[in-house]
Design brief:
- By secondary structure, the protein is an alpha+beta fold.
- It has helices at 28-31, 34-39, 68-78, 91-105, 124-141, 146-159, 163-168, 171-178, 185-200, 209-212, 220-231, 240-249, 259-272, 299-304, 321-335, 354-364, 395-398, 473-487, 589-602, 624-639, 644-649, 657-673; strands at residues 416-429, 441-446, 457-458, 461-463, 488-490, 511-517, 521-524, 528-541, 549-550, 574-578.
- Strand 7 and strand 8 (528-541) form a beta hairpin.
- Helix 11 (220-231) packs across helix 15 (321-335) and helix 12 crosses helix 15.
- It is elongated and about 90 Å long.
- The protein starts with 27 loop residues before the first helix and ends in a 36-residue tail after the last helix.
- Bound molecules: iron/sulfur cluster.
- Iron/sulfur cluster binds at residues 245, 248-249, 336-337, 342, 344, 347, 349-350, 353, 355-356, 403.
- Iron/sulfur cluster (SF4) is lined by residues 245, 248-249, 336-337, 342, 344, 347, 349-350, 353, 355-356, 403.
Length: 709
């Protein structure tokens, strides 16, 4: 059973009466009685559409079909779609109306990458350059709002104006430009893809979606976008916005992750992309209309429009029809057909939209119709095999039916929860311990070039094994001590920091100045929630000696025993930076949060404490008394050296469970709503995994749907 979706009530403004000329007007009363709204036994013709290459040929005649129950099973097993019946969507009308609407709004949001050019009149070089620009914009727009992307895209194109220049960059340069945009794996994908284009395609992005899929980091969505927008290829694309628009257009209420649903939506998207008129030149960049794939050549199209010639759409959609169509569909989803409160009254497709027709019917249904179920009138073999029941338990709930019930709500997988111990290691010249940031250095470690947060810098960190109790500092002590020892080459850590309790005060040139537990920080990634237990460790030595030397990649000791299976910062990849320069480094979001906590402590505004118990970031501010106590403890800690053993042994970063749960619930709710204006893409991209076993957990390549920030 699908999850129960809370009814959002009928649209506020009164709806116009159902349109008698709507293609499915005759079906509406039959399909929309309260009981059928709950059961969803509408006709398969609701979801039939024009022929497409994805669509099975109508060879399976109805009279040879197995009985419905068996057929349902078989359908699932073979992943076939419902029989091809009458088309419920007037594709020609939809194309014309949407393209005409797009002509009026395409410049509204000021996207510098959106250009009206005729690929037929461009040289190969110009088309390849345009493809690069579109590719960068599409990757940046994934999970990110247009208004944010504009500045990043402009800076990116200034720094890497061509794919060749991008291919020569390293991950650090790329991250520098990407800094702050989040989901850093996208930057890595662009870099990997640029290298593939230079190595395998002579520096020119290929023109067809099929070939584009051969480029590292490009999946079906991006392939469709680049091939249609830059090369006028008749390629479909489906992102979150398109899925929503097409689901509403066809009143499709089916599990979004199901392969059968995905096939249907992709096939529908494919069927609706208009063909590019044949160019007069002999250029081969754009495909001529193919009778097998051109929807307007379908017999259904001809039957619907017997007297008209194919609509060439010459007066709408500019010079590139497929590109304009795909952008128009996404624009509609981003600005009109939004997840919440869609503007159906302003929608160019309102006359064709089945979801809107249903909503209008329900709002205007005569009371006598509400008690009669007409499902018996349906031929059971014609019933839809795609749709699931609508989420109404009672007929009165069904009365609030509106378009927002489409697409079917996703069942979101619970994010896994993990814990990490982090140490902000600082060094100050001896004698200047209390003199601010001047001369103070902070240790950062570079992450691997592949995987989560690739190439970014972090404070030394160890992912705590599930077997360790994350609520105590004991696990952090054990693992961080081993990690720090492997990062510093000389002098070694003061004995007080190590697991040894012996003290060499007076002999050791590296002095432990202070130790402070920082407030716990929680960071939500697309696939997990990670709780960071940070501490601040201040060391000093004579200024002539400088900060402790660090191991190089060659000299770093290899982890042994249990440590070798831990995901942790890499010895040999550390560097000291000025404290004032930390914020300018390429840091991930969680590292930035930890640094904010450290800054708050230094400025006296934070909740850091000697001995832990830090409050979770973003939660209640500590009371004045508590803050005073903390400051006193910090001051005491700054003054004197001391063993870290006591500190490590105490509770560190106790997270208030209820607060945590509530915050996560809110964050999850925000996640659900955050795709108003962004491209939500779930596409499989190739990510090469070349990693050492030691860092196999957090620091290796995530799967394609695991984003990093
Ligand atoms: Fe979306 Fe409403 Fe337009 Fe239908 S009529 S496509 S639901 S905005």
């Amino acid at each position: 059973m699908p999850p129960k979706k809370k009814s959002t009530g009928p649209p506020a403004a009164p709806l116009p009466a159902p349109n008698a000329s709507h293609p499915c007007a005759a079906l509406l009363p039959a399909a929309l009685s309260p009981s059928s709204l709950a059961d969803r036994p509408h006709s398969a013709s609701y979801h039939a559409f024009l022929r497409s290459p994805f669509y099975p040929t109508p060879s399976s005649k109805r009279d040879t079909s197995p009985p419905p129950a068996k057929r349902k099973k078989k359908a699932a097993a073979e992943d076939v779609l419902p029989p091809l019946l009458e088309t419920a969507i007037d594709a020609a009308a939809v194309q014309r109306k949407l393209l005409a609407w797009f002509d009026t709004v395409k410049d509204t949001r000021g996207m510098p990458w959106r250009k009206e050019v005729n690929p037929a009149q461009q040289t190969d070089e110009e088309r390849a350059q345009r493809a690069y620009e579109v590719w960068v914009s599409e990757i940046m727009l994934q999970q990110t709002q247009v208004v944010t992307v504009v500045g990043y895209w402009t800076r990116w194109m200034a720094k890497f104006p061509t794919v060749e220049l991008l291919a020569k960059a390293d991950i650090e340069e790329v991250n520098e430009v990407w800094k702050g945009l989040g989901y850093y794996s996208r930057a890595k994908r662009l870099l990997d893809g640029a290298k593939t284009v230079v190595d395998n395609y002579d520096g020119h992005l290929p023109s067809t979606a099929e070939e584009l899929l051969g480029v590292d980091g490009i999946g079906p969505y991006t392939a469709g976008a680049v091939s249609s927008i830059a090369f006028a290829q008749r390629s479909p694309l489906v992102d979150g916005n398109v899925q929503r628009v097409l689901s509403r257009l066809t009143a499709l209420h089916a599990p979004q992750a199901a392969k059968q649903t995905s096939n249907f939506v992709w096939a529908l998207a494919d069927a609706l992309v208009p063909a590019q008129p044949s160019p007069s030149s002999s250029s081969s960049f754009a495909a001529d209309p193919d009778p097998e794939t051109d929807p307007t050549s379908s017999p259904h199209f001809k039957r619907r429009r017997p007297s008209s010639k194919r609509d060439d759409l010459s007066d709408v959609g500019g010079p590139n029809k497929p590109g304009a169509w795909n952008q128009a569909l996404m624009e509609l989803g981003a600005t009109v057909c939004t997840p919440k409160n869609p503007k159906c009254g302003e929608c160019p497709l309102s006359e064709e939209c089945l979801a809107y027709a249903e909503a209008r019917y329900v709002a205007h249904r005569p009371s006598s119709a509400s008690s009669s179920s007409s499902t018996a009138a349906e031929d059971i073999e014609d019933l839809c095999t795609l749709c699931s029941p609508l989420p109404y338990d009672t007929p009165s709930e069904a009365k609030t039916h509106n378009v927002e019930v489409y697409p079917m709500a996703k069942v979101r997988a619970k994010k896994r929860e993990e814990e990490t111990a982090v140490c902000v290691v600082e060094w100050v010249p001896e004698g200047t311990e209390g003199e601010g940031e001047e001369g103070r250095k902070v240790l950062l470690v570079k992450r691997p070039e592949k995987g989560l947060l690739a190439g970014l810098y972090e404070f030394p960190a160890v992912d705590l094994p599930p077997s360790d109790d994350p609520s105590t500092a004991f696990a952090g002590k054990k693992h961080l001590t081993a990690l720090l020892s492997s990062l510093l080459s000389s002098p070694s850590l003061p004995a007080a920091v190590s697991s040894s309790s012996s003290d060499e005060t007076g002999k050791h040139p590296l002095i432990l100045v202070s130790r402070t537990a920082l407030p716990v920080v929680s960071h939500t990634y697309s696939h997990m929630i990670r709780t960071y237990h940070p501490e601040r460790l201040v060391l000093s030595s004579p200024s002539s000696s400088g900060p402790p030397a660090l191991h190089t990649a060659d000299s770093a000791p290899r982890p042994k025993g249990a440590d070798k299976d831990l995901a942790r910062s890499r010895p040999g990849f550390g560097k000291w930076v000025d404290a004032s320069a930390v914020e300018g480094q390429n840091l991930g979001g969680a590292v930035g949060k930890v640094w904010e906590e450290r800054q708050a402590v230094v400025s006296g505004k934070g909740g850091g404490s000697s001995g832990g118990g830090g409050a979770k970031k973003g939660k209640k501010a500590p009371s004045a008394a508590a803050a005073k106590g903390k400051k006193e403890k910090e001051a005491a800690a700054e003054k004197g050296q001391g063993s870290l053993l006591g500190f490590f042994g105490k509770k560190m970063g106790v997270v208030k469970v209820e607060e945590e749960k509530k915050a996560r619930k809110e964050a999850s709710a925000e996640d659900d709503d955050d795709d108003d204006d962004v491209i939500v893409v779930e596409e499989e991209t190739k990510v090469k995994v070349v990693e050492k076993k030691v860092y196999k957990k957090r620091r290796t390549a995530p799967s394609s749907d695991e984003e990093d920030d």
